[in-house]
Amino acid sequence: MQDITVDARGLSCPQPVLETLEAIKKYESGIITVLVDTTTSRDNVKRAAEKKGFKAEIRVSNGGEFKVELSK
Questions:
Q1: Domain boundaries in the chain?
Q2: In whole angstroms, what is the distance from residue 36 CA to residue 50 CA?
Q3: pLDDT tens digits for 16-70?
Q4: Which of these, 6, 20, 59, 61, is most buried using a 10 Å CB contact count?
Q5: In this structure, what DSSP letter does residue 2 have?
Q6: Rounded CA separation 59/66 (Å)
Q7: Is 53 helix (H, G, I), strand (E, B) or coil?
Q8: Is residue 68 a contact partner of residue 24, using CB atoms and an 8 Å limit?
Q9: Calpha distance 51→1 (Å, rounded)
Q10: Alpha carbon of 47 to those of 1, 54, 56, 62: distances in Å?
Q11: 47 by DSSP, 3-state: which?
């Protein structure tokens, strides 16, 4: 089990989702933390991860950025 971080801040959709799905494919278990900076990216990453069977928990950091923690 390995914990990784995907930094998708500054990327336009659908890139954050594509990078998240690539991480999910590579690391099928553990915790994947996805950093995004828009509500659209946050929602799309959460939805895509949940479709793959991951639990998604959203945290807001200073500056309005979001940390989406995915676990399975």
A1: 4-71
A2: 17
A3: 999 999 999 998 778 999 999 999 999 999 999 999 999 999 999 878 899 999 9
A4: 20
A5: -
A6: 6
A7: coil
A8: no
A9: 21
A10: 23, 10, 8, 23
A11: helix
